[in-house]
Amino acid sequence: MATSWIIDAMCLSHDGGSYSCARRSIEIVGGRIVALHEMPPRTEPGDSIIPGNGLLAIPGLVNAHTHSPDNLLRGTAPHLPLELWSLHSAAGREGRTPRECYISAALGGIEMLRTGTTALLDHVRISPDLDGLCLDAVAQAYRDLGLRAVIAPIVADRPVAQTLPLDTADLRDLDLSAYGMRSQLPAREQIEIAEAFVERWHGYQGRIQAAIGPSAPQRCSDDLLMRAGELADRKGIILHLHALETRAQQAMGQHLYGKGTLAHLDELGLLGPGTNLAHAIWIEIDDLERIARTNTAIVHNPVSNARLGSGFCPLSDYLERGIRVGLGTDSACCNDSNNLFETAKWAGLLHNLVQPHARWVGAETALRLATQGSADAIGLGPDVGDLAVGQVADITLLRLGTPAFTPLNNIVRQLVLSENGSSVAHIMVAGEIVLRDGVCTKVDEKAIWQEARDIATRHLDDGNVYADAAKLSGPIEAMYARLGRGRSATQ
Questions:
Q1: DSSP strand pairing (19-29 vs 3-14)
Q2: pTM (predicted TM-score)
Q3: Inside any domain, residue 452
Q4: pLDDT 10s digits, 5-55
Q5: Structural domain range at position 424
Q6: 487 in a domain, yes or no?
Q7: What's the CATH number where 248 sits?
Q8: Average pLDDT, the chain
Q9: Are 405 and 414 in contact (CB under 8 A)?
Q10: Strands, E, within 321-447: which ranges?
């Protein structure tokens, strides 16, 4: 079996307590790290070698929550809170062909590779109805790029207007049939499509995994939630869903269930180590104990939370209770990038605004969440997220001769607080070089970018794409006036 080497690089590892950095040569066989040599080794003819002098090797970043269909919508949504923002984003991704879904996923995948990410969870919404060919196209994009990906098809069966605490008087005389009250595929059919996707792709080449992704509790009937949970249990896959991202979602949970949303999910048996909740901002006080008891994971998305004004995730509370936490960029339409270095910096700093300094997150914790934390949250297991013997060789190599690392005083702080992805030189996934000298090795980046421009131009020229969704703007504004705004339920 061929051996790959990264010779004489600075290697950043996490020993379970803190990070350490030392000059090592990484030996890779069968896609895994088999040794970290202190002295430069003797190589054999036919070995693949990357000279590591002047490079920093770190575990590849893991993006635990993104939405590939929104990659074509970057910059299209104005500065609005989630419920109004979603009218723009949802309308903009309507009626995509499989090829358009492929290009949108590839577009984000290229950006992630170029900024140090080697693995991701894609919470994929296909509109107006779940479609197996479009899901296949997303998986094919990640396969072609060489990324490690968990793909969670979004399922939802409540019409949009019934997912928010709107006043029925505000909906009077509005024709919502084309968007707000549009019928959804039955729960059974959605789960059948999702299960067929799982059968086709889960475990593919060791890099593609499938999951199931209810959009959010308030967007799903209990029947659909239970079917999704049963599928996750039966197939041993992750249950990934948005939860309590905004004040309106908290209010809707009380309206639907007469109790907190997470209390309802707990009663349904849907919390647990195989469940991860994206956002989890507007939790109830007793939810902290509930999340910890069930070993449910949280995916923190600080940039999109700030962009949409959703509130402050109680990150310090989660970490102090030993709750599993990963980091996500969220979509390129509500974050405006897929850059996990940026997200890690925000995670390390944003909570300084609402916490005393003794509870600040800091750079080391932020980096751990962006690697081991995210890998654990989305079910990639303990073999992803570090540079150590036995780990899969998902490795990001950064140039040290760049502004972020000059002078080199503290590698972890400068990696999280100074680096923005521009120092990324090479990427390995499972020991395969998928980015060399900052360029993807397995796809034609320029061709994908041009096709993305062409697709976006066609869709933006459609003046009617937003009109039906915009009919909900007035009722949503009235909802905001009734609910008021705040930081989060626990602050």
A1: antiparallel
A2: 0.97
A3: no
A4: 999 999 999 987 899 999 999 999 999 999 999 988 888 888 999 999 999
A5: 3-59+393-440
A6: no
A7: 3.20.20.140
A8: 95
A9: yes
A10: 325-327, 395-399, 424-429, 432-436, 439-440
